[in-house]
Amino acid sequence: MIKKVLIANRGEIALRIVRACNELGIKTLAVYSEADEQSLHVQLADEAICIGPATSSQSYLKSDRIIAAAEIANVDAIHPGYGFLAENADFAEQCADCKIKFIGPSADAIVNFGDKAKARGMATKAKVPVIPGSDGVVDNEKKALTVAKKIGFPVIIKAVAGGGGKGMRVAHNAVAFAKEYNSARNEADKAFGNGAVYIEKFLEAPRHIEIQVLGDQYGNVVHLGERDCSVQRRHQKLIEEAPSPFISEDTRKKMGRDAVKLAKSVKYEGAGTVEFLVDDEQNYYFIEMNTRIQVEHGVTEEVTGIDLVKEQLLIASGEKLSYEQKDIKFIRHAIECRVCAEDPSRNFAPCPGEISLYYPPGGHGVRIDSHVYGGYSIPPHYDSMIAKVITYGRNRELALDRMDRALKEYIIRGIATNISFSRTIIKDPTFRSGQATTKYIEEFLKRAPKNLYT
Ligand code: ADP
Fold first, then answer.
1. How far apart are CA 296 and CA 16, in angstroms?
2. 184 and 292 both lie in a single domain
3. What is the residue with the minimal CA distance to atom 15 of ligand 1?
4. Residues 64-86: pLDDT tens digits?
5. Considering the entire predicted model, what is its pTM?
């Protein structure tokens, strides 16, 4: 069994990992940047080592410093959380070279799924449906236009190294294509140091539905159902829920079966998420697989009663999954709203600064995952997400009513947040009736008066 874990991350996920380790009797080492000394995960971990200045490239992305900290503190495993080094195969390999267990899948799986064009190939090989698109990378404009015409407009040009909605452009016709193709390449190059792109048919208003999987070191794989993450702003998730109010029992079964098939085909180890887009007719298409724990994992935990971070730690320790597919039950409905330090009245601009007053909601059916507190200063250097509100109940109606109540109770003063905005969505009849697609927020912003949510 793993005895001591280095947490190569910050914020709410670092705290989430500390909590899981505490329950399993595993010691924790926090590594932190100079900007994060006051962060809760640093205070609650058993040990902490400062690894550099605030800028991520000088701290949370410095693999050599993190490995050095691991060796000094004598840890036997590293949990990368999400973002930063979580999907960095070189880092996973460095860990292996130093005989430190990287909590996640093999470096091979990270490489193959990290390249989204390759991932499409893996899904095709495993006979999982993919969106019609290019056969791998398209590296010159003329060839790309021929491919786009063959697929049929509209198309979406996507970075193979993409993530966080970056390096993605939609082209509605051949005239607009060149500009969008070059923008996608430039943005991808800037964001990921890799300008390679591929092309997919653009679905106008699909649902984003993803399946959580868990695999152990012995080839056993189960799925923990779906999460509907269709409520997105600029391709970034905002609200997630399970089960999906849209898909049928039959589609659910097929998607679960295909996600397990894909994970099994690569002997997948650990927690992973197979992402799909689903059209109006319930046709579903693989878009990517994320080889890490995801922000929205808490929704699945509240629906299944399974602690995903503990499962990651047990799997990495060499334990077998202690249940089979038939043992996994979906006992209720859960929903998550991401709370971000951003100002909806200024086009959602990030809004770091000191929290002068903080009073999180509580009570029956409410879970808050957050690293902030009253008097805490949100540094400007990182992601603007500062908390996740997860509510759950016997059915969707109850979970949604609870979310409305929890958001109403949530007091954060000193900075702007998107809490009122999320509350307006929760009350909106279109969302409430389960009709939200990935286009929903764009349409909502066009029709809803601004004073409703600012
Ligand atoms: P990232 O890795 O940057 O999150 P994804 O491939 O997971 O990118 O896509 C993010 C979101 O972008 C999807 O949930 C969806 O809203 C939109 N998207 C991606 N591909 C398509 C597509 N082919 N058609 C329509 N929307 C798409």
1. 12
2. no
3. 235
4. 999 999 999 999 999 999 999 99
5. 0.97
